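Illustration: TlpA family protein disulfide reductase.
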Amino acid sequence: MLARKKSVLSALLLMLVSAFLFWGSGQVLGAGGPKGTDFHVFKNPPPASNFQMSTVDGRVVNLADYKGKVVLLNFWRKDCPYCDMEKNQFSAMLKSFNNGDIKVLCANLWDDPSWVRAHATRYAGPFTIVTRAGGRKSVVENVVNGRTMGYYVVNGSNEAIYEVKGFPSTYVIDKQGRVVATHMGLAKWSVPAVMRWLADLLGEQGTGTSVEPGSDLPEWLHHLLGGNPGRKISERIASFALGDTTD
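Result:
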């Protein structure tokens, strides 16, 4: 009975934050971004939260290690055909730039790390495949009435730091380590509008003409992305949900 109450409370807390993310302060994410695309760009980019990942050769890396570079933090899983298609887009874009200051981290935190490592050669490309580090659970599943509504990526302190509502999902991080945009679903990274926008972030053009106005980021979402310990609700979500979950 106690476990059931705990599970219900966890689900309710996850529902609450999910509702806040999209309706708590009006429209959180605007339609800004490269013209003619559905990227969501923030007017006041929050800092990207750090967390650990493991490369397929066993190296532990931190997201913070890539500060000073433009990073596309891409979340994917094996049962997502669009994720495979997007990797082709990443390859074409990276080869076009041929610039070490832009990195693509394809993070699979859902499937067994041994599967990710075994199948890494299938995804050979100029991007980096990473999985969860140290065998710890890195995501919290948001299940409401038997239906998965999305996931929260949690850090080593069990704080919810990124939301993934579908696959693939990508967070765009600038050289200052700020989340400047998000995209859910298959994105066409190699089309001219997106390439110009990324070039602006790299400082290769600096015109800014390829980007439409973005949207303000409410402080509560700023705290979520920043992994701020003051956001008690994110701590409670992570601790309740992780308490109900085993590897």
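Reading the tokens back as a structure: The chain has one domain: 2-243.
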